[in-house]
Amino acid sequence: MLEGLSSTAQPTASNLGPNHLAAEGLATLTATCEKQSFENARTGLIVSQTGLREDVFALRSRTYSSVAFSLDAALKLEEVLRNELKDKKQPGEQRECVQQFEGYLETLTDPLVEQDKLSKELDASAFKDSTKEAQEELKREKETEEMAPKK
Known about the structure:
151 residues, single chain, mainly alpha
């Protein structure tokens, strides 16, 4: 009974991986862009935009299920779309649609990438400050020990 339930579970970035998700996303986007404009495709394909690192957005797959993309998977999809635009010569409207999707995904991921960068800088700064504070505390303790009368 549990086997049947697990097969209907929604695919996510954690159980498929960014490369598989990027390939699926590319196939979905290019197929949809063959038939629709970017605005119509975006409305039909982007199920949600949480703006969270874990689930930046959810894309409707070709099987109509919703697939959540983590930041890593979304960045991989951007890269794959850029490469697709460089390597292949799609017809003008399809190419424009794919290009707009790549730009749209950047607007979703860039703030999160910047947030990660700032967070890492703050973490590094806090680590340096705590290390310096610990060294000063050791120095004060040593000075206190030296000044204390010896028995």
